[in-house]
Every structure is written in structure tokens, then in C-alpha cells.
Design a protein that fits this description.
MdtA-like_BSH, transport, coiled coil, about 350 residues, nine-stranded antiparallel beta sheet, MdtA-like_HH, four-stranded antiparallel beta sheet, OB fold (Dihydrolipoamide Acetyltransferase, E2P), 5 helices
């Protein structure tokens, strides 16, 4: 501790030594360039890969509905039931028709075998042989027709139970119990949230580069950047906007994303050398953006800079710094050093 009668020259020497010591303790960084990726950011619209409306494949009256809007459905679940009275009646008729056709085929085969045997012994005429063979061919055709009718009636019966083609959520119900439907009538709509994608309109000036890179990241609502699993670029541009439609394929089961949401999509265009410094070194005062740069006497001087894009904890410097400049990493320590040197000069 200095005494009150300490000579002035000793006081100045002490302050100067303190200033030099602080300058040596000040943590600095030599400005260098580094390769940074240039990106284009576009707005994208989330949609489900699988979203559809299930329609009736047979006519009838809706007798039961098992799911409603926002219900979770598993693949193969019965969504609703259509009355099957007419379909069951046609099925029974088809079964009876098949039995008749089987009987006629059996009789035709037996008759042909008998005629064929005596024809070989020259005991039957050619016309009798031809007639028996034609009857057999006709019976075979009738049997095939009856069998096909049975399969069709079975299918119509199965259509009375409307099955979920995939798992997901019900988004809309189009019918009520007791309503009569016909083939093609919409019954229920659903969406699979496990498989999503993002649609983007890409300006034609970036199409070639994006097509070569085929890389993209999607900003989730949480702030996390999600890398795309793949990309599909349509081979033609919109004649009105001259933009290319791009589909960004996402990994499965992404939480927090839903069809219809708007998201930001980032696509890399290439890398360039840029001056990047830690964001902590930047002084923000109202509209001023500056850093402390060490001069030839290793003393910090405030210098205004113009900022570019931010990447993580670093910020691009567009102007104000050159390669080789020494900057202070802690603006507060640099300011303290300046104040200490100013006190020394005043003394």
C-alpha cells in the first residue's frame, strides 16, 4: 500500500506497471478467416406422407361407427359397419349357383366319358361325340363363372366392414349412423403423423446448386435444427412463379410437427472464407456494434464493426476488422484496462 507522501514518480510507475500487467492478463484473439456455409432460408409447409379419405366400396346403410375425430386408429381396425343384408343374400345365391354349376359339370364329364368310350369303339356318331364335348366345355365355363360370382359376393360382404388402411388419427367423419351410402361415398378421413414431409418452393436461381447438394435442415418449433432424410426436386418449374417444388423428407416420429404448420428450411449453397469472431467479444450500445482492438502499444481501442449472419456462438464480421487484428474477448476487462490507463495519465 502506498503512503500519502509517496513521490509522484513512484505513483505513476505503479499505475503504469498495473496497466502493463492488466494488458498482459487481457485475453485476446487473433482475427482469422474460416470457411462458413452459405445458406438460403425458405418457408416450408408440413404435410403428411399418408393422408386420405376412405370411401364406401358397396351400397348400404351405415349401422355402426367405431371411431370419431382425433381418435387413434391402428392398421386393420374396423372404422365403421355397413348393413350387409343384401350382400349376404347375394353371397348365398352365389353359393347355390356354384353348387348347381358343380353338379352340371359332373354330369357333363360323366356323359362325355361315356360317349368318348363308345365313340372309340365306333359305336357313337361324330355328332354325338361333338355334342358331348361341347356340353362339357359349356359346363366348365359355367362353373368358372359361378366361382367368380361367389368370390365377388364374398368381396362385397367384406366391404361392409370398412378397414383402416394404415394407422393414424381420424381427421374427419363424413357420415352418421343410419345414413345410406353408395360406392364412392366418403366415409372417414385420416392422417398418419409418423411420416411427415415439408414442401418448399425453390427459386430457380438456386435450383442447380440445391439439386447437386440435396441437403436441407428444418427448424423445429423447439428451435432444434433437424437434418432432412432425403429430398425430391420436381423436374419442372411453375410457369407462373418460376419456382421448383421441393419435398423435404423427414425422419419418422418427429414430435411437435403437424400437417399444415409453417417451418423454416435452410439449404446450403456452398462455403466461403469469412471473418468470424466469438459473439461475447462484441460490444452492443444502442445502434452501435463494436469490438476492442489492441493497438501497437497493446492497448484496447473501441472500433465499430458491421455484423453478418450468426452461426452458433460466432458472428460474421462484414467490415471493421482485418485478418491479423488482435481483439479482446472480454469487453468489460478491456474497458477496465482503458479506465486504469486513463487514471494513470490524469495522475
Amino acid at each position: 500500500m502506498l503512503k500519502p507522501n509517496t513521490p509522484q514518480w513512484l505513483l505513476l510507475a505503479t499505475l503504469f506497471a498495473s496497466s502493463v500487467s492488466s494488458a498482459q492478463a487481457l485475453e485476446t484473439l487473433r482475427v482469422e478467416t474460416k470457411a462458413i456455409t452459405q445458406n438460403i432460408q425458405l418457408n416450408g409447409l408440413v404435410e403428411a406422407v399418408r393422408q386420405s379419405t376412405v370411401a364406401a366400396q358397396t351400397a348400404g346403410t351405415v349401422s355402426a361407427i367405431y371411431y370419431d375425430v382425433d381418435d387413434q386408429v391402428s392398421p386393420g381396425n374396423v372404422l365403421l359397419q355397413i348393413s350387409d343384408t343384401e350382400q349376404q343374400a347375394r353371397f348365398e345365391q352365389a353359393q347355390a349357383g356354384l353348387r348347381v354349376a358343380q353338379t352340371n359339370l359332373t354330369n357333363a364329364e360323366q356323359n362325355f366319358n361315356r360317349i368318348d368310350s363308345i365313340y372309340k369303339k365306333q359305336l357313337a356318331s361324330q355328332s354325338q361325340y361333338d355334342q358331348a364335348r361341347n356340353q362339357l366345355d359349356s359346363a366348365k365355363a359355367s362353373y368358372r363363372q359361378a366361382n367368380a360370382a361367389l368370390k365377388e359376393s364374398q368381396k362385397q360382404v367384406s366391404y361392409t366392414k370398412v378397414i383402416a388402411p394404415y394407422g393414424g388419427l381420424v381427421t374427419e367423419r363424413h357420415v352418421e349412423v343410419g345414413e345410406v351410402v353408395a360406392p364412392g361415398s366418403p366415409l372417414m378421413s385420416g392422417v398418419d403423423l409418423s411420416q411427415l414431409r415439408v414442401n418448399v418452393d425453390l427459386p430457380q436461381s438456386y435450383a442447380t446448386t440445391v439439386r447437386q447438394n440435396k441437403l436441407a435442415e428444418v427448424a423445429l418449433p423447439s428451435g432444434e435444427m433437424l437434418a432432412a432424410k432425403g429430398m425430391t426436386i420436381f423436374p419442372y418449374a411453375n410457369s407462373n412463379t418460376h419456382n421448383f417444388r421441393v419435398r423435404i423428407h423427414l425422419p419418422e416420429n418427429i414430435q411437435g410437427l403437424y400437417p399444415g404448420m409453417s417451418v423454416k428450411v435452410s439449404m446450403p449453397l456452398g462455403s466461403q472464407q469469412r471473418i468470424m469472431i466469438p459473439a461475447q467479444a462484441i460490444v452492443v450500445r444502442s445502434e452501435l456494434r463494436a469490438v476492442y482492438v489492441l493497438d501497437q502499444q497493446q492497448q484496447p481501442q473501441l472500433r465499430q464493426v458491421r455484423l453478418g449472419q450468426r452461426q452458433g456462438q460466432e458472428v460474421e464480421i462484414l467490415s471493421g476488422l482485418q485478418v491479423g487484428d488482435q481483439i479482446a474477448l472480454d469487453p468489460n476487462e478491456a474497458l477496465n484496462l482503458i479506465n486504469t490507463a486513463r487514471v494513470g495519465k490524469d495522475a
